[in-house]
Amino acid sequence: MFENALIIALIVLFIHACMWEGMILSWLSDLFAYLPNAIRKPLYECVICMTPYYGTLLLIALFPSVSLAEAVLTILCASGINVLFSILLPE
Predict the structure, then answer these.
(1) What is the dihedral of CA 69, 73, 79, 80, to 10 degrees?
(2) How far apart are CA 17 and CA 47, in angstroms?
(3) What's the pTM value of the predicted model, to 2 decimals?
(4) Burial class (CB in 10 A: 0-12, 13-18, 19+), 69
(5) Which residue, 11, 58, 63, 65, has fewest beta-carbon neighbours within 10 Å?
C-alpha cells in the first residue's frame, strides 16, 4: 500500500510542478487563472488539494484490483506524503 501511495504522490507532485511558472504546462495555469480559488486549488495550484482527485483517478487506472478500504488508506497516505513534500519543497 505504501508503495502505491508513494507512486501516486509523486505523480501528483509531477503534475503540479509541470504547471509552475516557466514549466511546460504553465500556460494551463494562465488559461485557468480566472477560475475561483476553490476550483484552481484542486485543479492545479495545491498539491495537497490535488491528491484526492488525481490520486483517485490514478489509483483506478494503475491499481484497479485494490479494495475500497485499501484505496481510501492509499489516498490518505498519498495526501500525507504530499503534505510533507509541500513543506519541504519550495515553489
Answers:
(1) 160
(2) 9
(3) 0.88
(4) exposed
(5) 65
